[in-house]
Amino acid sequence: MSGHSTYQPKTGIERWLDARLPIVRLMHDSAVSYPVPRNLNLLWTFGGILVFMLVAQIITGVILAMHYTPNATMAFNSVEHIMRDVNFGWLLRYLHSNGASMFFVAVYIHIFRGLYYGSYKAPREVLWILGVIIFLLMMATAFMGYVLPWGQMSFWGATVITNLFSALPVIGETIVTFLWGGYSVDNPTLNRFFSLHFLLPFMIAGVVVLHIWALHHVGQNNPTGVEVKDVKKDTVPFTPYATIKDLFGMVCFMLVFAWFVFYQPNFMGHADNYIPANPASTPAHIVPEWYFLPFYAILRAIPDKLGGVLAMGGAIVILAFLPWIDTSKVKSMTYRPIARQFFWMFVLVCIGLGYLGAMPADEPYVTISRILTVLYFGFFVALALIGIFERPAPLPTSIADSVLGGSGARLGHATAAAPQAKG
């Protein structure tokens, strides 16, 4: 998809730099002349939104780290100091805390878009796997960041989640002791989490570079799932077409983000986390942040501790195997009527698990969680079977035909007409 470079240095400085470090050429080929499918919709803007959010999280996080004290006796007060005494500290903190939630909103939309349009299928398997790795790193980073305010929910959330590693045979207790820095969640734990929370975003940025590199090598998927056949007809330059669309989507997303920051900054937080951590007082109901709730519900649905941990981890890791689980040759579920129905059922199951994760571990919530957990994993089994028996709708002959409506509109129609022509 990258093709031959069209960049032409215009000044002597540009020619001098291009001969020694062609960084301007790289930027031009990646963000100006790079060909993108002409039928991309607004769901494709979330990739750009995620890059913007990552940069925003790193910048606000670095500035907050300048004023934060990773000490169990001072962490809570240092957060209050940021809110009350640091110039625009309240804004930085709300941008960072709400930014984490908006980051996950964007990444979940990005994942579901990839699921619906088959963006995990060949030749984009490595691109998809890198995306799953980014998702795992995001979850680890967010969890460690949630512990840093050292409120009640931070402390007990860290206690519960780190304890899960003890279920792993042989190495479990060693991992827990390493994370704790001792035999309970305390000051060494906070120091470890602060260090890792500072480090992991830069690891995410590195994997994002690989993700974008893989994307530019194989080219973007599109709503039809039909690969580019004619670059001139099927694609348009990234700038101005995709950049304007990305900018519009980003502005709309930022308006929602700004509404939370300025009008509902604590909406997605938990009230108990505004109480200093107290190891002697356990909250009545320990819950993680909302973006962990579906996986937390799966964890609690399994009566065995090790089984729950494996099911929770498997619910994420199984996404990496989608390129081989889905047996259909057709990418986009727009043309797969049965798979499309299962997809929307899967979306409802995920929302249901998120709701149940916020509920107490009582009946009927536990039983319903078990049913939805079976349905969650059943979706992947269904994809393997549906691909064998499903009869997809006819595909467009090209991306251009799907947009402009060509005379040879559908592959299926052309295939059906071939025997008649012979006759």
TrEMBL record:
<keyword id="KW-0812">Transmembrane</keyword>
<feature type="binding site" description="axial binding residue">
    <location>
        <position position="110"/>
    </location>
    <ligand>
        <name>heme b b566</name>
    </ligand>
</feature>
<comment type="subunit">
    <text>The main subunits of complex b-c1 are: cytochrome b, cytochrome c1 and the Rieske protein.</text>
</comment>
<feature type="transmembrane region" description="Helical">
    <location>
        <begin position="126"/>
        <end position="148"/>
    </location>
</feature>
<keyword id="KW-0479">Metal-binding</keyword>
<feature type="transmembrane region" description="Helical">
    <location>
        <begin position="306"/>
        <end position="325"/>
    </location>
</feature>
<feature type="transmembrane region" description="Helical">
    <location>
        <begin position="193"/>
        <end position="215"/>
    </location>
</feature>
<dbReference type="Pfam" id="PF00033">
    <property type="entry name" value="Cytochrome_B"/>
</dbReference>
<dbReference type="GO" id="GO:0016491">
    <property type="term" value="F:oxidoreductase activity"/>
</dbReference>
<feature type="transmembrane region" description="Helical">
    <location>
        <begin position="368"/>
        <end position="389"/>
    </location>
</feature>
<dbReference type="InterPro" id="IPR027387">
    <property type="entry name" value="Cytb/b6-like_sf"/>
</dbReference>
<feature type="domain" description="Cytochrome b/b6 C-terminal region profile">
    <location>
        <begin position="228"/>
        <end position="397"/>
    </location>
</feature>
<feature type="binding site" description="axial binding residue">
    <location>
        <position position="211"/>
    </location>
    <ligand>
        <name>heme b b566</name>
    </ligand>
</feature>
<dbReference type="Pfam" id="PF00032">
    <property type="entry name" value="Cytochrom_B_C"/>
</dbReference>
<feature type="binding site" description="axial binding residue">
    <location>
        <position position="96"/>
    </location>
    <ligand>
        <name>heme b b562</name>
    </ligand>
</feature>
<feature type="transmembrane region" description="Helical">
    <location>
        <begin position="337"/>
        <end position="356"/>
    </location>
</feature>
<feature type="binding site">
    <location>
        <position position="216"/>
    </location>
    <ligand>
        <name>a ubiquinone</name>
    </ligand>
</feature>
<feature type="transmembrane region" description="Helical">
    <location>
        <begin position="42"/>
        <end position="69"/>
    </location>
</feature>
<dbReference type="GO" id="GO:0008121">
    <property type="term" value="F:quinol-cytochrome-c reductase activity"/>
</dbReference>
<feature type="transmembrane region" description="Helical">
    <location>
        <begin position="247"/>
        <end position="264"/>
    </location>
</feature>
<dbReference type="InterPro" id="IPR030689">
    <property type="entry name" value="Cytochrome_b"/>
</dbReference>
<dbReference type="InterPro" id="IPR048259">
    <property type="entry name" value="Cytochrome_b_N_euk/bac"/>
</dbReference>
<dbReference type="InterPro" id="IPR005798">
    <property type="entry name" value="Cyt_b/b6_C"/>
</dbReference>
<dbReference type="GO" id="GO:0045275">
    <property type="term" value="C:respiratory chain complex III"/>
</dbReference>
<keyword id="KW-0472">Membrane</keyword>
<keyword id="KW-1133">Transmembrane helix</keyword>
<keyword id="KW-0249">Electron transport</keyword>
<dbReference type="GO" id="GO:0022904">
    <property type="term" value="P:respiratory electron transport chain"/>
</dbReference>
<comment type="function">
    <text>Component of the ubiquinol-cytochrome c reductase complex (complex III or cytochrome b-c1 complex), which is a respiratory chain that generates an electrochemical potential coupled to ATP synthesis.</text>
</comment>
<feature type="domain" description="Cytochrome b/b6 N-terminal region profile">
    <location>
        <begin position="13"/>
        <end position="224"/>
    </location>
</feature>
<dbReference type="InterPro" id="IPR048260">
    <property type="entry name" value="Cytochrome_b_C_euk/bac"/>
</dbReference>
<dbReference type="InterPro" id="IPR005797">
    <property type="entry name" value="Cyt_b/b6_N"/>
</dbReference>
<comment type="similarity">
    <text>Belongs to the cytochrome b family.</text>
</comment>
<protein>
    <recommendedName>
        <fullName>Cytochrome b</fullName>
    </recommendedName>
</protein>
<feature type="transmembrane region" description="Helical">
    <location>
        <begin position="90"/>
        <end position="111"/>
    </location>
</feature>
<keyword id="KW-0679">Respiratory chain</keyword>
<dbReference type="GO" id="GO:0046872">
    <property type="term" value="F:metal ion binding"/>
</dbReference>
<dbReference type="InterPro" id="IPR016174">
    <property type="entry name" value="Di-haem_cyt_TM"/>
</dbReference>
<keyword id="KW-0349">Heme</keyword>
<dbReference type="InterPro" id="IPR036150">
    <property type="entry name" value="Cyt_b/b6_C_sf"/>
</dbReference>
<feature type="transmembrane region" description="Helical">
    <location>
        <begin position="160"/>
        <end position="181"/>
    </location>
</feature>
<feature type="binding site" description="axial binding residue">
    <location>
        <position position="197"/>
    </location>
    <ligand>
        <name>heme b b562</name>
    </ligand>
</feature>
